[in-house]
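Bench notes, afternoon.
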Amino acid sequence: MFFCGTCQKILNFAALLCTIGLFAQTSKLPNVKELVSVENENTGETVEVVNIPVDGVNRYFLHVGNMGIGDKVIQVNLDPVYRLYIPLGNNLADAVAAMEELKTLYKEPKGTMREVQGSFKPFFPTEETETVRVYRHQPLLANQLQFVIERDGYERVAYLSKSEFGSLLRGLKLNGKLHKE
C-alpha cells in the first residue's frame, strides 16, 4: 500500500501529534538542524543529512527515509514514525568522508553488501545502534543503495538512488565550505 505525498504528510503529522506528548514527558526533544534535504518527486520521500548537537558536540547523520516492511519482493510503506539514521561523525570532515565511503558502493557489482551501524528509532536517532546491511541494488536502469534491517522475520528496507545521494553529498560539501567548524 502506497500513499500519495500529501496523504503521507498527513499521516506523519497525525503520528507526530499522537506521540509528541510521550516525547515531551520522557525526554527533551533534540535540536535537529537540517543541512541538506532531497525529496524524491515520484515517491514524496525525503532523504537528508542532519546535525543534532548533543552536549556541545555536533553529531551528523544520514537520514535515508522511512523504511518499508515486507520481504525481498514486496515492501509496504506503513510506518511514518520509525526512521533510519546512519551516523556520519562528529564534524563535517568526518561526515563528508563517511558519505564518500558509502558512495564507493555505487560502483561495486550488483548485490555487493557492506554493514554499517544505524539508529532505527521513532523520529530521532539515539546512541543505541544496530547493524544495517547496505546493498548495491540495481533494478532495471536505476542505481540504488538498499538499506536493510531484519526484524521479527521481516525486512525493513529503504532505498537511496545515486542521484539523490550525489545531491546530498554535494550539498554537504557546500555547507562545509560556507560554515567552517
